[in-house]
């Protein structure tokens, strides 16, 4: 077997979900800056258009697609359209996400649970299944699923989110094993506390206290610090890493005291 140890994604095509904000936006920017064609997908709205416009203004190859990842029918349509637009699809980054805090005794628990599972877990497998015919034609097919340190440990009253994210790590391992013979790599990243839209309503003082007490690096991470690991997993040279779950958490999981 001939190895391709290129450290470039130039000319590759990546589809990023939830790319209008936070880590998804940073991922789109990092890939675009490296010369990849980027399918910027998110819920419809000005934030999505703005990310694509910013990338186009920098003469990057990027286009926006409105895609609600809980809309089963829309997934295949958008994935196929992305592949047709850019002449293929090499990588998928399943990143779109929502918070899903809910105490187990809450009357609305089932609603939150169902939404968490659909958006955070079911969408991943649906997008992967839609992307597979295209990934199978790529010379460096890559799938990166964004889970969370909540897949590895747990915060009280966060069980729908924790369960869905743990599901993402299981899905990642299972598909890595199933698709490995085809050279398709499937990996998960578990971000720790990252400054994004999702954590925007946490007061700065609380963030600082939490980061100081819990992370080795004593600070929240920037979305770009996660995006660069995602990019690394998508390099042609990253061809012998699959089925892993990588914390990108400033040492949160490593720290006991
Ligand atoms: P964010 O809120 O800044 O971005 C999430 C994006 O997902 C938004 O643009 C939102 O519109 C989009 N989204 C939500 N529901 C969607 C749907 N049904 N269809 C399409 N797009 C949808 O949050 P962040 O932090 O950048 O989140 C990215 C991923 O990272 C999520 O999966 C999240 O669970 C995960 N994560 C975040 C952490 C953090 O500290 N910020 C920690 C660990 C994991």
TrEMBL record:
The lineage of its organism: Bacteria, Pseudomonadati, Pseudomonadota, Alphaproteobacteria, Sphingomonadales. PROSITE patterns: ADH_SHORT. SUPFAM superfamilies: NAD(P)-binding Rossmann-fold domains. CDD domains: SDR_c (cd05233). Belongs to the short-chain dehydrogenases/reductases (SDR) family. InterPro entries: NAD(P)-bd_dom_sf, Sc_DH/Rdtase_CS, SDR, SDR_fam. The gene is bdhA. It comes from Novosphingobium arvoryzae. GO terms for biological process: monocarboxylic acid metabolic process. This is 3-oxoacyl-ACP reductase.
């Amino acid at each position: 077997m001939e190895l391709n140890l290129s450290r470039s994604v130039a000319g590759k095509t990546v589809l990023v979900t939830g790319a209008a904000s936070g880590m998804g936006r940073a991922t789109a920017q990092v890939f675009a800056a490296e010369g990849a064609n980027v399918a910027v997908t998110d819920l419809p709205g000005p934030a999505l258009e703005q990310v694509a416009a910013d990338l186009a203004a920098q003469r990057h190859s990027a286009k926006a697609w409105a895609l609600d990842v809980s809309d089963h029918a829309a997934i295949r349509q958008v994935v196929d359209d992305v592949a047709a637009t850019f002449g293929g699809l090499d990588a998928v980054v399943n990143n779109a996400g929502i918070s899903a805090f809910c105490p187990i005794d809450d009357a609305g628990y089932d609603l939150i649970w169902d939404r968490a599972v659909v958006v955070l877990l079911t969408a991943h497998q649906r997008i992967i299944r839609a992307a597979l015919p295209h990934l199978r034609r790529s010379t460096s097919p890559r799938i990166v699923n964004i889970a969370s340190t909540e897949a590895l440990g747990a915060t009280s009253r966060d069980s729908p989110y924790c369960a869905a994210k743990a599901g993402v790590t299981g899905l990642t391992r299972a598909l890595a094993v199933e698709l490995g013979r085809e050279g398709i790599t499937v990996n998960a990243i578990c971000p720790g506390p990252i400054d994004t839209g999702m954590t925007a309503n946490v007061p700065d003082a609380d963030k600082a206290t939490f980061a100081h007490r819990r992370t080795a690096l004593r600070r929240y991470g920037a979305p770009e610090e996660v995006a660069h690991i995602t990019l690394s997993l998508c390099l042609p040279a990253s061809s012998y890493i699959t089925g892993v779950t990588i914390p990108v958490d400033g040492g949160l999981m490593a720290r006991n005291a």
